[in-house]
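Obj: model holo form, ligand = heme C.
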Amino acid sequence: MLSFKSNNAKKGIVGIVLTILIIGSSWMIEPNIFSTEKPIPIPPSKQQEGNAELGYNYLIYGDFIKSGLPYTIFTKIFGKDENNYLGRTGKAATVPAGFNVVKHTNGTQIVVPTCLQCHSQIVDGKLFLGLGNTELDFTNLSAGKEWLQNLSRLAMKNVAPKQYEATLSITTSLSTIAPLMRTEVKGVNAADPLAILLVAHRDPYTLEWKEKPLLDIPDEVVPTDVPAWWLLKKKNAMFYNGFGRGDFGKFLMLSNLLTVKDSAEAREVSTHFSDVLAFLKKLEAPTYPNKINIQQAQIGEKIFVTTCSKCHGTYGEKGTYPNLYLLIPSSIIQTDSLLFKSNYQNPQFINWFNKSWFAQGENPAKLSPSNGYVAPPLDGVWITAPYLHNGSVPNLEAVINSKIRPTYWGKDFKNPTYDTEQLAWKYTIYDAAVNKTVYNTTLNGYSNKGHYFGDQLSIEERKALVEYLKTL
Ligand code: HEC
Ligand code: HEC
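Output (holo structure tokens):
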């Protein structure tokens, strides 16, 4: 068996569905007898044109985050990175892929975290750009807060006032919000609460930082698995529950809220994000590296078309993608509801956004929450383990056989290895949640229930289906 080994460096942001009966091939996903809910099509919205090359350049060199650690201090603490996975030139070549080297407005050269902290992963010594990072640790961010405070103290002692000034904006925002985005298990992402926290401290029109939050901050930290970037080009709406409508560029630039000074700066940054969108639309899913049993895959394709395509679309040259989202929990999907409920139950956040700078101008964005999740495109699904929006299901077969889903399972974070036959990060099944590296599906937000659409298939049919899924 060929397997991949990860050697991802530990440098994160802070270290940084009554059961469904599917019979036949038409919409026989009868909403249950007590429900009239049906999948709802999501309409497309107009997007700005951009230049993909400029977009890529901005992602790996750009200054959408405008405060960070002085380059000299960063390299003193972490040393220089030898990998240069992105093949960058200049000082950027010497920092890990998840950081850019940019100039602060006061002239100081600083190292800033980027999208690639969450949206890239190293598998078998190769960086997969746009693959969701499953190795971040959001379980102990109060330690992250101390880390940041120590760093700024250090910065104060050893460096010029200008260098200290360059760290201020990011240390202020991160140390205010980090303690409030703690997840229960390692490997899941806290970007959804991060977005809420970021806007809570910002004036909706001027985007200026406010020390006291202007909005009520929800208690729960919703865990998510980071979706692959190459899926965006098929989507009419962004995010797991499809609530990101209108100009995608406005959502893509949300990280800028970490350090944005005011709406004038946001306007300048936003001009680059049509280019970033153009780049994201060009990204293709990586091809499965091992031999595929073509006969099995052809049998699997027929099963897929009958059982799965109505939600997930068809693939190949004449592929179609229905852009549907599915109502939960009463009838159809039944996966964990915390994420969509949190989007629904925090109207203060939705209202903030829909009246904010982001919702104004010629290319406005809008948040339109609903109680459902989008059925994602499955391109490159072989490499996107763990599965479901909360990453609760470790391997692909278990997505189509709910009976084999483990309640407690743990990935080996010390020596993470991708198993290209199981289509999973190698994992161990536990009897209990012995520590934070063990995924605990009994917790609120972390449930592995729902998506029972493969349960009625035979063992042979499922095997053929998995073989087909490897080809996408
Ligand atoms: C702290 C981690 C983190 C950072 C940093 C981050 N993202 Fe994300 N991103 C996420 C998570 C988590 C989601 C899924 C959220 C959801 O759908 O509810 C996501 C979703 C996305 C999506 C997919 C939307 C979809 O529906 O397919 C895109 C595209 C994206 N982010 C782009 C970016 C860009 C561009 C940046 C940098 C400017 C960035 N992200 C920075 C964590 C992050
Ligand atoms: C009624 C619509 C529907 C049908 C039918 C359906 N799915 Fe899904 N599927 C979804 C939705 C919605 C999600 C997202 C659920 C979530 O993340 O909570 C999903 C998620 C998935 C995922 C996880 C993707 C990821 O990256 O996490 C896989 C894999 C998948 N489906 C495969 C299949 C296969 C194979 C079939 C056929 C046996 C199938 N689905 C049938 C709606 C459907």
